[in-house]
Every structure is written in structure tokens, then in C-alpha cells.
Specification:
Elements (H helix, E strand, L loop, with lengths): L2 H19 L7 E2 H12 L11 H15 L8 E2 L7 H10 L7 H15 L15 H30 L34
Parallel strand pairs: 1-2
Helix pairs in contact: 1-2, 1-3, 3-4
């Protein structure tokens, strides 16, 4: 089958797989899982690496969703580290939107729209759209390490003011050698650079 025909079959299958994924709140799919399911569903197999063709499929799905007025199903497709890739940026370009500072949060809101549109059971409390677990964990670690580092710094400062350090003996350092201002090679005793 020609590659062009294969991409059409894969795009149709990808839309179906992503639509099904959107029916369960909080669900998402990795690029590799989507590639496997798309090939299985369409019956069209390839031995080409996923990275060489999956973005083209996700762009086709993004265009279809955009034309149909559906939320961007490509927000449900994440990389192994559970972040959205360049295929999601394409969604924003299609809509004529600027790329936000926090692409992951934008994608979380887009997934939320997908869940609502495709009938997933939504939380009754109207919670904040969830980030993927790995992204959320990285953010928790970042916010935890910043206060911990600040606390450690404060503790070090307190320790330093409470216990003055004993004076350290000055160690004799060898004299600095003169270097050429042009090539930064150490100058001979004459002070004239033989390289410049």
C-alpha cells in the first residue's frame, strides 16, 4: 500500500482510538501505544520507526478535529515522559493561537474539553483539569525542592551567624603567569608573544 494511503487509514484509526480514549476521564495514550493500536485497527503495518510517521498522523487528526469543531484529540496523545509534543503545538497553530508559556497546562485544559465532548464521567466538583501523572510529579518535586533549598539556605545562614568559622590559614598560591591578550598563551619571560 502506498504511504499516502496508509496515512489516511492510520489517521482514521487514530481518530477512532483517541475518541475512545476520551470517553474515560483522565485517560491518555502514549505515542507508541497509539502507533500500535492504529496499525492494528487499520490493518496496515509498517516497520518504519514510529517517530518518522506518527506526527503526520496526529496533524491529520488535528486538522479533522479543527474542521469538525471538535476539541483537539491530539492533546490525549503524549510522549513516554507524558508531555505533549510538537503535534500539539500544531493544534494551536491551526487555531491561530499563540504558543502559551505552559504548554502542558494548556493541553490539560484541551484534554478536559475532549472528556466533556466525548461523554466521559466528569468530576462533580468541577476540579481543575489534571496534568498527566509524570508531569504533575515533576512539578510537585520542583515546588518541593525550591522551599527545601530555601530552608537549607536559611539554616546555613543561621549556623554561620551562630558559630563563626575559625580563621583559615592562607595557602601560598603560585604567582599568576602572564598571558597574551590576543591568543591567551602563556608569555615567555621576554613578555613577547611568538604566536601573534
Amino acid at each position: 500500500m502506498p504511504f499516502r494511503d496508509a496515512t489516511v487509514a492510520w489517521a482514521l484509526a487514530a481518530h477512532a482510538v483517541l475518541s475512545e480514549t476520551a470517553t474515560a476521564y483522565g485517560h491518555f495514550i502514549t505515542v507508541n501505544e497509539l502507533a500500535e493500536q492504529v496499525q492494528e485497527t487499520s490493518g496496515v503495518q509498517t516497520e518504519a520507526p514510529t517517530r518518522t510517521w506518527i506526527d503526520a498522523i496526529l496533524r491529520k487528526v488535528a486538522r479533522r478535529c479543527h474542521r469538525a469543531g471538535e476539541p483537539p484529540l491530539t492533546a490525549l496523545c503524549v510522549r513516554q515522559n507524558q508531555t505533549v509534543g510538537d503535534a500539539y503545538r500544531y493544534v494551536l497553530e491551526l487555531a491561530g493561537l499563540p504558543i502559551p508559556d505552559d504548554l502542558e497546562l494548556h493541553a490539560a485544559y484541551a484534554r478536559w474539553q475532549c472528556y466533556q465532548h466525548f461523554g466521559a464521567g466528569m468530576p462533580a466538583d468541577g476540579a481543575v483539569p489534571p496534568l498527566t501523572p509524570k508531569v504533575a510529579a515533576r512539578r510537585r518535586m520542583t515546588t518541593m525542592t525550591a522551599p527545601a533549598a530555601e530552608a537549607a539556605s536559611s539554616a546555613d545562614t543561621a549556623r554561620q551567624t551562630a558559630q563563626p568559622e575559625p580563621p583559615q590559614e592562607e595557602t601560598a598560591q603560585p604567582p599568576r603567569q602572564r598571558v597574551c591578550g590576543e591568543c591567551f598563551i602563556q608569555l615567555p619571560a621576554s613578555g613577547v608573544c611568538h604566536y601573534c
